[in-house]
Amino acid sequence: DGGITQSPKYLFRKEGQNVTLSCEQNLNHDAMYWYRQDPGQGLRLIYYSQIVNDFQKGDIAEGYSVSREKKESFPLTVTSAQKNPTAFYLCASSINLGGLDYGYTFGSGTRLTVV
Amino acid sequence: GNSVTQMEGPVTLSEEAFLTINCTYTATGYPSLFWYVQYPGEGLQLLLKATKADDKGSNKGFEATYRKETTSFHLEKGSVQVSDSAVYFCALRGGADGLTFGKGTHLIIQP
């Protein structure tokens, strides 16, 4: 079955460490996205990529970095510059065929906790 | 810029009650509108969508109509079940960048 896989499901980070969250999709979608979810704040866009080797900052990109070397993969690195990284991180992908908008497919999320 | 406003809740209803979750938006042009549902500890699942004015999206007994004159996309269900308990997000896409989400509405259905 096609879908998006995020790993790990739970991740613990020490202060000052960088960590990388994995996101892989086998849906052949061109576009991929990273969102951060905090209680009471909904979802906020971190980075997105419309095509391989290209990505754009979202609303809250500071302290994060991404790469898009393959169509299937869009890893997110939470750097030590991110002051409050504890959150639930969601990856998504999308396709637009013939002008029809099919919305997003989401992964099951990674919960990151700073210890 | 684009924005979505929805009632935040929690909304608590009894089983078989009628559900309405309000959603209004601000956007230029003609955005696509979506409702997503999130069950505890999981990602978001697309519930329904509408891509032009007066379209009605429907799925699993839920409905929402794209009302451009009132810039609204309210979610309704005639008879809710305990299994409908979840967080519901209204969202819009007006361009090539990501979806803009509301803050989510936590729905609790009591037996």
Summed up, the helix count of chain A is 0
Helical/strand content category of chain A: mainly beta
Quaternary structure of the protein: heterodimer
- What distance lies between the first and last C-alpha atoms of chain B, to the nearest angstrom? 41 Å
Low-confidence stretches of chain B: none
Radius of gyration of chain A, whole Å: 14 Å
What Rg of chain B do the Cα atoms give? 13 Å
Mind explaining what this structure looks like?
- The complex is a heterodimer of chains A (115) and B (111).
- With 115 residues, chain A is mainly β.
- In chain A, 0% of the residues lie in helices and 57% in strands.
- Chain A contains no helices and eleven strands.
- Chain A has strands at residues 4-7, 10-13, 19-25, 31-38, 42-51, 54-57, 64-66, 76-78, 87-97, 100-106, 110-114.
- In chain A, the strands form two sheets. In chain A, strands 2, 4, 5, 6, 9, 10 and 11 form a seven-stranded mixed β-sheet that branches. A four-stranded antiparallel β-sheet of chain A has the order 1-3-8-7, with no helix packed on it.
- The N and C termini of chain A lie far apart (36 Å).
- The model of chain A has no long low-confidence stretch (mean pLDDT 91).
- With 111 residues, chain B is an all-beta fold.
- Chain B has strands spanning 3-6, 11-14, 19-21, 23-26, 32-38, 44-50, 56-59, 62-65, 75-77, 86-93, 100-101, 105-110.
- In chain B, strands 2, 5, 6, 10, 11 and 12 form a six-stranded mixed β-sheet that branches. Chain B has a four-stranded antiparallel β-sheet with strand order 3-9-8-7, with no helix packed on it. Chain B has a two-stranded antiparallel sheet with strand order 1-4.
- Chain B is globular, with a radius of gyration of 13 Å.
- The model of chain B has no long low-confidence stretch (mean pLDDT 93).
- The A-B interface holds A 4, 6, 33, 35, 40-43, 45, 48, 50, 56, 58, 90, 92, 100-101, 103-109 and B 8, 32, 34, 36, 41-46, 49, 51, 89, 93, 96-99, 101-104.
